[in-house]
Amino acid sequence: MDAHRLRMLRELADHGTVAAVADVLSMTPSAVSQQLKILAREAGVTLIEPAGRRVRLTDAGRVLVGHAETVLAALDRAAADMDAYRTTARGEVSVSFFPSGAAMLLAPLIIAARARGVEVIGRDIDTPAARAPQQLAEFDVVVVHRDDRDIAEWGPRLSVVPLLREPLDVLLPPGHRLATQHRIQLSDLAAADWIGVEGGLMVDDVFKSIATLTGVPVRITQRVNDFRVVEELVAAGLGIALMPRYVTLARDLVRRPIGDIRLARRVEAVTRVGADARPAIALVLEELRGIAAGVAGQSMSE
Questions:
Q1: Residues 60, 74: contact at Cβ < 8 Å?
Q2: CATH class, range 91-165+266-301
Q3: So where are the chain's domains?
Q4: What digits encode the pLDDT tens for the residues 116-173?
Q5: Can you tell me whether residue 33 is helix, strand or coil?
Q6: What are the distances in angstroms from CA 21 to CA 18, 26, 28, 146, 246?
Q7: PROSITE patterns recorded for this chain (predicted)?
Q8: Considering the domain 166-262 in this protein, what is its CATH number?
């Protein structure tokens, strides 16, 4: 069986539609369908079947995806072994970040990796952390952030490198009634209007955790994803917000920790299992760990 066709079947398992696979692999949907038909003839069984306007894997298709993972992982390891013969990591590594993570980590990563012979190609994409497996069809490394209370497992096909744990503070305008307090209690915020983010993103997951812990829903009056826009709305007195502690503010606003609950986000680098055997990817992960430790250390010393 052709490895490229096996990769298409795996991508179909990850993405769910032929059109999505075609987009990821820069092919036409008809070309993907044709290649999957050839793979079915090679296997001698039906691998996909109609499901409404979509398709789904048959039982045989799901079994073959498992074998495809083994074959493709072996091919990746073989490629990594060949790379390991080089004395110095080289080439390009593509890395996806959530926007505030890119602002914090991308520039120093590019500089540090370039000094060691590796070019980092970075992108900032505002998408839920749960989409990391799909993003890995396009990127070598995906840097995500999650609610610290999110304990969902990534599964055996992915490898995760913890980078940092970042506390979340309350962001207030200077004249707010709570701005003079050193720490704020959740009960002080019961009637507050909050500036939130789109559902599914990290901050929204934290708000859900707060509601679960307190039994009181958080009143979100605006939802914007860009932290700079959040700053403007808070500065205008339109609400308060949660802000990761290491995010640099452009506005003169007040940050205060919540004293009776620990709120934080975890920042992690996700790769496919075995990808870090490539020297260039291993180098990028090493640099990310060092840069993240420096960010956390510098903030604690300020």
A1: no
A2: alpha beta
A3: 3-84, 91-165+266-301, 166-262
A4: 999 999 999 999 999 999 999 999 999 999 999 888 888 888 999 999 999 999 999 9
A5: helix
A6: 5, 8, 9, 27, 37
A7: HTH_LYSR
A8: 3.40.190.10
Whether the pLDDT of residue 301 is over 60: the answer is: no
Q: Do the domains 166-262 and 91-165+266-301 match in fold?
A: yes
For tokens 């039906």, the residue is 46
Q: Where do runs of H (alpha helix) occur along 58-98?
A: 59-84
Q: How far is the C-alpha of 7 from the C-alpha of 87, rounded, in Å?
A: 30
Which residues have C-beta within 8 Å of that of residue 151, sequence separation ≥ 6? none
pLDDT tens-place string over residues 224-278: 999 999 999 999 999 999 999 999 999 999 999 998 888 999 999 999 998 988 8
Write the single-letter amino acid at 40: A
- Angle CA(222)–CA(217)–CA(205) in degrees, nearest 5? 70
Q: Report the length, in residues, of the chain.
A: 302
User: Can you name the residues that pair with 269 across neighbouring β-strands?
Assistant: 143, 161
Q: What is the CATH number of domain 3-84?
A: 1.10.10.10
Nearest partner of 183 among 170, 194, 195, 196, judged by Cα: 170
